[in-house]
Protein backbone atom coordinates (compact mmCIF):
# COMPACT_ATOMS: atom_id res chain seq x y z
CA UNK A 1 0.00 0.00 0.00
CA UNK A 2 1.38 3.41 -1.02
CA UNK A 3 2.02 5.91 1.78
CA UNK A 4 1.43 8.93 -0.52
CA UNK A 5 -0.19 11.91 1.25
CA UNK A 6 -3.41 13.06 -0.46
CA UNK A 7 -3.93 16.84 -0.64
CA UNK A 8 -7.34 18.13 0.31
CA UNK A 9 -8.45 18.60 -3.32
CA UNK A 10 -6.70 15.52 -4.67
CA UNK A 11 -8.39 13.57 -7.44
CA UNK A 12 -8.32 10.38 -5.38
CA UNK A 13 -10.05 12.13 -2.48
CA UNK A 14 -12.76 13.40 -4.81
CA UNK A 15 -13.34 9.91 -6.22
CA UNK A 16 -13.71 8.69 -2.64
CA UNK A 17 -16.29 11.37 -1.83
CA UNK A 18 -18.55 10.40 -4.73
CA UNK A 19 -17.73 6.66 -4.61
CA UNK A 20 -16.63 6.31 -8.25
CA UNK A 21 -15.38 3.06 -9.71
CA UNK A 22 -13.24 4.50 -12.47
CA UNK A 23 -12.30 7.88 -14.02
CA UNK A 24 -10.52 8.05 -17.37
CA UNK A 25 -8.64 11.13 -18.61
CA UNK A 26 -8.52 11.29 -22.42
CA UNK A 27 -5.94 13.49 -24.15
CA UNK A 28 -4.98 13.59 -27.81
CA UNK A 29 -2.72 16.31 -29.21
CA UNK A 30 -3.53 15.64 -32.89
CA UNK A 31 -7.24 16.45 -32.47
CA UNK A 32 -6.98 18.71 -29.40
CA UNK A 33 -9.19 16.31 -27.43
CA UNK A 34 -9.25 16.76 -23.68
CA UNK A 35 -12.02 14.77 -22.06
CA UNK A 36 -12.88 13.02 -18.81
CA UNK A 37 -15.06 9.90 -18.57
CA UNK A 38 -16.37 8.99 -15.12
CA UNK A 39 -17.89 5.59 -14.33
CA UNK A 40 -19.72 5.89 -11.05
CA UNK A 41 -21.47 2.57 -10.38
CA UNK A 42 -22.15 -0.55 -12.45
CA UNK A 43 -24.13 -2.65 -9.96
CA UNK A 44 -27.29 -2.55 -12.07
CA UNK A 45 -25.62 -2.69 -15.49
CA UNK A 46 -23.13 -0.89 -17.77
CA UNK A 47 -22.66 2.81 -17.02
CA UNK A 48 -24.67 4.95 -19.41
CA UNK A 49 -24.46 8.73 -19.61
CA UNK A 50 -24.26 11.60 -22.05
CA UNK A 51 -21.16 13.42 -23.17
CA UNK A 52 -21.23 17.15 -22.47
CA UNK A 53 -18.99 19.56 -24.39
CA UNK A 54 -18.44 22.78 -22.48
CA UNK A 55 -15.88 25.61 -22.21
CA UNK A 56 -14.81 24.83 -18.65
CA UNK A 57 -12.48 27.50 -17.29
CA UNK A 58 -10.45 25.03 -15.21
CA UNK A 59 -9.78 21.29 -15.27
CA UNK A 60 -11.02 21.08 -11.68
CA UNK A 61 -14.37 22.51 -12.80
CA UNK A 62 -14.65 19.87 -15.54
CA UNK A 63 -13.73 17.07 -13.12
CA UNK A 64 -16.23 18.25 -10.54
CA UNK A 65 -18.96 18.41 -13.20
CA UNK A 66 -18.31 14.91 -14.55
CA UNK A 67 -18.18 13.41 -11.05
CA UNK A 68 -21.46 15.01 -10.00
CA UNK A 69 -23.23 14.24 -13.27
CA UNK A 70 -22.15 10.59 -13.37
CA UNK A 71 -23.29 9.99 -9.79
CA UNK A 72 -26.66 11.45 -10.72
CA UNK A 73 -26.86 8.98 -13.64
CA UNK A 74 -26.51 6.04 -11.22
CA UNK A 75 -29.46 7.33 -9.19
CA UNK A 76 -31.42 8.17 -12.32
CA UNK A 77 -31.13 4.63 -13.71
CA UNK A 78 -31.89 3.08 -10.32
CA UNK A 79 -35.03 5.08 -9.58
CA UNK A 80 -36.39 4.68 -13.10
CA UNK A 81 -36.17 0.89 -12.75
CA UNK A 82 -33.62 0.50 -15.55
CA UNK A 83 -30.85 -2.09 -15.49
CA UNK A 84 -28.12 0.44 -16.11
CA UNK A 85 -25.30 2.00 -14.10
CA UNK A 86 -24.19 5.62 -14.02
CA UNK A 87 -21.46 7.35 -16.01
CA UNK A 88 -20.78 10.60 -17.83
CA UNK A 89 -18.27 12.15 -20.20
CA UNK A 90 -17.17 15.76 -20.55
CA UNK A 91 -15.17 17.18 -23.43
CA UNK A 92 -13.39 20.43 -22.57
CA UNK A 93 -13.93 22.99 -25.34
CA UNK A 94 -16.33 25.24 -27.17
CA UNK A 95 -18.82 23.04 -29.03
CA UNK A 96 -19.28 25.73 -31.69
CA UNK A 97 -15.62 26.12 -32.62
CA UNK A 98 -13.53 23.25 -31.20
CA UNK A 99 -15.52 20.30 -32.54
CA UNK A 100 -14.40 18.16 -35.47
CA UNK A 101 -15.09 14.72 -36.90
CA UNK A 102 -11.60 13.59 -35.91
CA UNK A 103 -11.99 14.82 -32.32
CA UNK A 104 -15.29 13.00 -31.90
CA UNK A 105 -13.96 9.81 -33.45
CA UNK A 106 -10.86 9.95 -31.26
CA UNK A 107 -13.16 10.29 -28.26
CA UNK A 108 -15.09 7.28 -29.61
CA UNK A 109 -11.89 5.24 -29.59
CA UNK A 110 -11.40 5.99 -25.89
CA UNK A 111 -14.95 4.72 -25.28
CA UNK A 112 -14.23 1.59 -27.35
CA UNK A 113 -11.25 0.86 -25.09
CA UNK A 114 -13.59 0.73 -22.08
CA UNK A 115 -15.09 -2.46 -23.54
CA UNK A 116 -18.74 -1.63 -22.93
CA UNK A 117 -18.45 -0.54 -19.30
CA UNK A 118 -19.37 2.97 -20.52
CA UNK A 119 -21.99 3.76 -23.16
CA UNK A 120 -22.57 7.36 -24.15
CA UNK A 121 -25.22 9.55 -25.74
CA UNK A 122 -25.83 13.23 -26.53
CA UNK A 123 -25.82 15.97 -23.88
CA UNK A 124 -25.34 19.74 -23.75
CA UNK A 125 -22.98 20.69 -26.58
CA UNK A 126 -23.27 17.38 -28.45
CA UNK A 127 -25.93 16.00 -30.78
CA UNK A 128 -26.88 13.14 -33.13
CA UNK A 129 -24.16 14.04 -35.65
CA UNK A 130 -21.50 13.68 -32.96
CA UNK A 131 -22.98 10.34 -31.90
CA UNK A 132 -22.73 9.27 -35.54
CA UNK A 133 -18.99 10.05 -35.52
CA UNK A 134 -18.52 8.20 -32.22
CA UNK A 135 -20.50 5.26 -33.69
CA UNK A 136 -17.88 4.99 -36.46
CA UNK A 137 -15.35 3.96 -33.79
CA UNK A 138 -17.44 2.10 -31.25
CA UNK A 139 -20.84 0.46 -30.86
CA UNK A 140 -21.07 1.72 -27.26
CA UNK A 141 -23.09 4.80 -28.14
CA UNK A 142 -26.82 5.54 -28.36
CA UNK A 143 -28.78 8.47 -29.77
CA UNK A 144 -27.36 7.89 -33.23
CA UNK A 145 -29.58 9.05 -36.10
CA UNK A 146 -32.53 6.90 -37.08
CA UNK A 147 -30.89 6.36 -40.48
CA UNK A 148 -28.15 4.43 -38.65
CA UNK A 149 -30.62 2.25 -36.77
CA UNK A 150 -30.69 4.44 -33.69
CA UNK A 151 -33.45 6.22 -31.82
CA UNK A 152 -32.41 9.72 -32.92
CA UNK A 153 -32.74 12.62 -30.53
CA UNK A 154 -33.21 12.02 -26.80
CA UNK A 155 -34.79 15.36 -26.08
CA UNK A 156 -38.42 14.58 -27.09
CA UNK A 157 -38.42 11.63 -24.64
CA UNK A 158 -36.74 13.73 -21.95
CA UNK A 159 -39.37 16.43 -22.42
CA UNK A 160 -42.12 13.81 -22.14
CA UNK A 161 -40.67 12.59 -18.81
CA UNK A 162 -40.45 16.15 -17.47
CA UNK A 163 -44.02 16.74 -18.58
CA UNK A 164 -45.17 13.64 -16.66
CA UNK A 165 -43.20 14.79 -13.59
CA UNK A 166 -44.90 18.18 -13.77
CA UNK A 167 -48.29 16.47 -13.99
CA UNK A 168 -47.54 14.31 -10.93
CA UNK A 169 -46.66 17.43 -8.91
CA UNK A 170 -49.72 19.29 -10.14
CA UNK A 171 -51.87 16.34 -9.08
CA UNK A 172 -50.31 16.45 -5.60
CA UNK A 173 -50.78 20.21 -5.22
CA UNK A 174 -54.10 20.82 -6.96
CA UNK A 175 -55.83 17.41 -6.80
CA UNK A 176 -56.04 17.07 -10.60
CA UNK A 177 -53.24 16.63 -13.10
CA UNK A 178 -54.82 18.82 -15.77
CA UNK A 179 -52.51 21.63 -16.86
CA UNK A 180 -55.19 23.78 -18.46
CA UNK A 181 -54.82 27.29 -17.13
CA UNK A 182 -51.71 26.53 -15.03
CA UNK A 183 -48.81 28.91 -15.49
CA UNK A 184 -45.37 27.50 -16.23
CA UNK A 185 -42.03 29.33 -16.61
CA UNK A 186 -39.68 27.33 -18.83
CA UNK A 187 -36.09 28.54 -18.47
CA UNK A 188 -34.06 27.42 -21.47
CA UNK A 189 -35.72 26.90 -24.84
CA UNK A 190 -33.15 24.46 -26.22
CA UNK A 191 -33.76 20.88 -27.30
CA UNK A 192 -35.71 19.78 -24.21
CA UNK A 193 -37.21 23.19 -23.44
CA UNK A 194 -38.77 23.52 -26.87
CA UNK A 195 -40.43 20.07 -26.77
CA UNK A 196 -41.66 20.77 -23.25
CA UNK A 197 -43.19 24.10 -24.28
CA UNK A 198 -44.96 22.27 -27.10
CA UNK A 199 -46.44 19.64 -24.74
CA UNK A 200 -47.51 22.26 -22.21
CA UNK A 201 -49.20 24.40 -24.83
CA UNK A 202 -51.03 21.35 -26.21
CA UNK A 203 -52.66 21.08 -22.76
CA UNK A 204 -53.48 24.79 -22.72
CA UNK A 205 -51.05 25.78 -19.99
CA UNK A 206 -49.91 29.41 -20.04
CA UNK A 207 -46.19 29.33 -20.72
CA UNK A 208 -43.51 31.94 -20.02
CA UNK A 209 -40.12 31.35 -21.66
CA UNK A 210 -36.66 32.75 -20.96
CA UNK A 211 -33.27 32.06 -22.52
CA UNK A 212 -29.96 33.84 -23.01
CA UNK A 213 -30.15 32.98 -26.71
CA UNK A 214 -32.54 35.68 -27.99
CA UNK A 215 -33.07 34.17 -31.46
CA UNK A 216 -34.01 30.77 -30.12
CA UNK A 217 -36.22 32.32 -27.46
CA UNK A 218 -38.22 34.42 -29.95
CA UNK A 219 -38.54 31.48 -32.34
CA UNK A 220 -39.94 29.10 -29.71
CA UNK A 221 -42.25 31.74 -28.23
CA UNK A 222 -43.74 32.53 -31.63
CA UNK A 223 -44.08 28.91 -32.73
CA UNK A 224 -46.00 27.73 -29.66
CA UNK A 225 -47.67 30.89 -28.40
CA UNK A 226 -45.56 31.38 -25.28
CA UNK A 227 -44.72 34.71 -23.62
CA UNK A 228 -41.11 35.91 -23.54
CA UNK A 229 -39.86 37.03 -20.13
CA UNK A 230 -36.53 38.38 -18.96
CA UNK A 231 -34.15 35.72 -17.66
CA UNK A 232 -32.74 37.97 -14.96
CA UNK A 233 -36.10 38.92 -13.45
CA UNK A 234 -37.78 35.49 -13.82
CA UNK A 235 -38.42 35.09 -10.11
CA UNK A 236 -40.12 38.46 -9.79
CA UNK A 237 -43.01 36.93 -11.73
CA UNK A 238 -45.86 34.86 -10.36
CA UNK A 239 -46.36 31.39 -11.87
CA UNK A 240 -47.36 27.92 -10.64
CA UNK A 241 -44.43 25.90 -11.98
CA UNK A 242 -40.78 26.70 -12.55
CA UNK A 243 -39.28 24.36 -15.19
CA UNK A 244 -35.49 24.81 -15.33
CA UNK A 245 -34.32 23.45 -18.70
CA UNK A 246 -31.00 25.27 -19.07
CA UNK A 247 -28.08 24.66 -16.72
CA UNK A 248 -27.83 23.50 -13.09
CA UNK A 249 -27.70 25.24 -9.68
CA UNK A 250 -30.49 27.74 -10.44
CA UNK A 251 -32.28 26.67 -7.26
CA UNK A 252 -30.29 28.17 -4.42
CA UNK A 253 -30.80 30.11 -1.18
CA UNK A 254 -31.13 33.40 -3.05
CA UNK A 255 -33.61 32.23 -5.71
CA UNK A 256 -35.69 30.13 -3.27
CA UNK A 257 -36.30 33.25 -1.17
CA UNK A 258 -37.69 35.02 -4.25
CA UNK A 259 -39.75 32.10 -5.59
CA UNK A 260 -43.52 32.37 -5.53
CA UNK A 261 -44.20 29.09 -7.38
CA UNK A 262 -45.52 25.90 -5.79
CA UNK A 263 -43.61 23.45 -8.01
CA UNK A 264 -40.10 23.13 -9.45
CA UNK A 265 -39.88 20.53 -12.20
CA UNK A 266 -37.49 20.67 -15.14
CA UNK A 267 -34.81 18.80 -17.06
CA UNK A 268 -31.63 20.64 -16.02
CA UNK A 269 -29.16 18.39 -14.24
CA UNK A 270 -28.25 19.17 -10.61
CA UNK A 271 -30.74 21.98 -10.14
CA UNK A 272 -30.12 22.39 -6.41
CA UNK A 273 -26.91 24.36 -5.77
CA UNK A 274 -26.67 22.71 -2.34
CA UNK A 275 -28.51 19.37 -2.32
CA UNK A 276 -28.92 19.22 1.45
CA UNK A 277 -29.63 22.83 2.40
CA UNK A 278 -31.74 23.75 -0.62
CA UNK A 279 -33.80 20.55 -0.49
CA UNK A 280 -34.61 21.31 3.15
CA UNK A 281 -35.40 24.97 2.37
CA UNK A 282 -37.87 23.90 -0.33
CA UNK A 283 -39.54 21.45 2.07
CA UNK A 284 -39.89 24.20 4.70
CA UNK A 285 -41.24 26.67 2.15
CA UNK A 286 -43.74 24.08 0.88
CA UNK A 287 -42.40 24.11 -2.69
CA UNK A 288 -42.71 20.69 -4.37
CA UNK A 289 -39.43 19.79 -6.03
CA UNK A 290 -39.56 16.99 -8.60
CA UNK A 291 -36.04 15.50 -8.35
CA UNK A 292 -34.27 16.40 -11.57
CA UNK A 293 -32.57 13.08 -12.06
CA UNK A 294 -35.90 11.28 -11.95
CA UNK A 295 -38.03 13.41 -14.22
CA UNK A 296 -35.24 14.01 -16.76
CA UNK A 297 -34.69 10.25 -17.15
CA UNK A 298 -36.42 10.21 -20.55
CA UNK A 299 -33.11 10.46 -22.37
CA UNK A 300 -31.78 7.52 -20.43
CA UNK A 301 -34.95 5.59 -21.18
CA UNK A 302 -34.35 6.29 -24.86
CA UNK A 303 -30.81 4.94 -24.59
CA UNK A 304 -32.08 1.89 -22.74
CA UNK A 305 -34.61 1.19 -25.48
CA UNK A 306 -31.97 1.57 -28.14
CA UNK A 307 -29.66 -0.86 -26.36
CA UNK A 308 -32.29 -3.51 -25.83
CA UNK A 309 -34.49 -3.29 -28.94
CA UNK A 310 -35.89 0.10 -29.91
CA UNK A 311 -39.59 0.90 -30.28
CA UNK A 312 -40.85 4.48 -30.19
CA UNK A 313 -44.18 3.52 -28.62
CA UNK A 314 -42.56 1.47 -25.85
CA UNK A 315 -40.06 4.24 -25.17
CA UNK A 316 -42.80 6.82 -24.69
CA UNK A 317 -44.69 4.37 -22.43
CA UNK A 318 -41.57 3.97 -20.26
CA UNK A 319 -41.30 7.78 -20.06
CA UNK A 320 -44.92 7.92 -18.91
CA UNK A 321 -43.96 5.71 -15.92
CA UNK A 322 -42.16 8.78 -14.56
CA UNK A 323 -45.58 10.00 -13.42
CA UNK A 324 -45.98 7.12 -10.94
CA UNK A 325 -42.34 7.20 -9.88
CA UNK A 326 -42.69 10.93 -9.06
CA UNK A 327 -45.90 10.26 -7.13
CA UNK A 328 -44.04 7.62 -5.08
CA UNK A 329 -41.26 10.11 -4.25
CA UNK A 330 -43.75 12.82 -3.23
CA UNK A 331 -45.59 10.32 -1.05
CA UNK A 332 -42.39 9.23 0.71
CA UNK A 333 -41.37 12.85 1.21
CA UNK A 334 -44.73 13.66 2.78
CA UNK A 335 -44.91 10.54 4.96
CA UNK A 336 -41.38 10.87 6.31
CA UNK A 337 -41.30 14.71 6.21
CA UNK A 338 -38.05 14.67 4.26
CA UNK A 339 -37.03 16.68 1.18
CA UNK A 340 -38.10 15.08 -2.10
CA UNK A 341 -34.51 14.76 -3.30
CA UNK A 342 -33.65 12.76 -0.17
CA UNK A 343 -36.77 10.61 -0.61
CA UNK A 344 -35.72 9.86 -4.20
CA UNK A 345 -32.16 9.04 -3.11
CA UNK A 346 -33.48 6.59 -0.55
CA UNK A 347 -35.65 4.79 -3.11
CA UNK A 348 -32.72 4.59 -5.58
CA UNK A 349 -30.20 3.47 -2.93
CA UNK A 350 -32.55 0.76 -1.70
CA UNK A 351 -32.88 -0.65 -5.22
CA UNK A 352 -29.09 -0.70 -5.75
CA UNK A 353 -28.54 -2.33 -2.34
CA UNK A 354 -31.24 -4.94 -3.01
CA UNK A 355 -29.81 -5.85 -6.40
CA UNK A 356 -26.23 -5.86 -5.04
CA UNK A 357 -27.31 -8.65 -2.75
CA UNK A 358 -28.37 -10.84 -5.67
CA UNK A 359 -25.52 -10.11 -8.07
CA UNK A 360 -21.99 -8.76 -8.05
CA UNK A 361 -20.77 -5.85 -10.17
CA UNK A 362 -21.64 -6.06 -13.87
N1 LIG B 1 -31.15 16.55 -23.99
C1 LIG B 1 -31.58 15.64 -23.13
O1 LIG B 1 -32.18 14.64 -23.52
C2 LIG B 1 -31.34 15.82 -21.65
C3 LIG B 1 -31.53 14.72 -20.80
C4 LIG B 1 -31.40 14.91 -19.43
C5 LIG B 1 -31.05 16.15 -18.93
N2 LIG B 1 -30.85 17.18 -19.79
C6 LIG B 1 -30.49 18.49 -19.22
O2 LIG B 1 -31.49 19.44 -19.58
C7 LIG B 1 -30.89 20.71 -19.80
C8 LIG B 1 -31.22 21.20 -21.21
O3 LIG B 1 -30.76 20.26 -22.16
P1 LIG B 1 -30.87 20.54 -23.72
O4 LIG B 1 -30.50 19.29 -24.41
O5 LIG B 1 -32.18 21.17 -24.02
O6 LIG B 1 -29.72 21.61 -23.91
P2 LIG B 1 -29.61 22.75 -25.03
O7 LIG B 1 -28.20 23.16 -25.07
O8 LIG B 1 -30.28 22.33 -26.29
O9 LIG B 1 -30.51 23.93 -24.43
C9 LIG B 1 -30.14 24.68 -23.32
C10 LIG B 1 -30.73 26.06 -23.52
O10 LIG B 1 -30.51 26.80 -22.32
C11 LIG B 1 -30.06 28.11 -22.67
N3 LIG B 1 -29.29 28.64 -21.55
C12 LIG B 1 -28.00 28.43 -21.22
N4 LIG B 1 -27.67 29.11 -20.11
C13 LIG B 1 -28.79 29.79 -19.74
C14 LIG B 1 -29.09 30.66 -18.68
N5 LIG B 1 -28.17 30.99 -17.77
N6 LIG B 1 -30.34 31.14 -18.60
C15 LIG B 1 -31.30 30.83 -19.51
N7 LIG B 1 -31.06 30.01 -20.55
C16 LIG B 1 -29.82 29.50 -20.66
C17 LIG B 1 -29.27 27.92 -23.94
O11 LIG B 1 -29.17 29.13 -24.65
C18 LIG B 1 -30.09 26.85 -24.67
O12 LIG B 1 -31.09 27.41 -25.49
C19 LIG B 1 -29.41 20.52 -19.52
O13 LIG B 1 -29.13 20.84 -18.18
C20 LIG B 1 -29.19 19.04 -19.74
O14 LIG B 1 -28.10 18.57 -19.00
C21 LIG B 1 -30.99 17.05 -21.13
Q: Which secondary structure elements does this structure contain, and how are they paired or packed?
A:
Layout: H1 11-18, E1 22-28, E2 33-41, E3 47-54, H2 59-79, E4 85-92, H3 101-112, E5 118-122, H4 128-135, H5 155-174, E6 183-187, H6 191-202, E7 206-210, H7 214-224, E8 227-228, E9 241-244, H8 253-258, E10 263-264, H9 275-285, E11 288-289, H10 292-295, H11 298-307, H12 312-320, H13 322-336, H14 340-358
Helix pairs in contact: 2-14, 3-4, 5-6, 5-11, 5-12, 5-13, 11-12, 13-14
Nicotinamide-adenine-dinucleotide is lined by residues 123-124, 154-155, 158, 187-193, 210-213, 216, 231, 245-247, 267-269, 296, 299.
Going by CATH, the architecture of the largest domain would be 3-Layer(aba) Sandwich
What count of structural domains? Answer: 2
Strand order of the largest sheet: 8-7-6-9-10-11
What ligand species are in this complex? nicotinamide-adenine-dinucleotide
Count of individual helical segments: 14
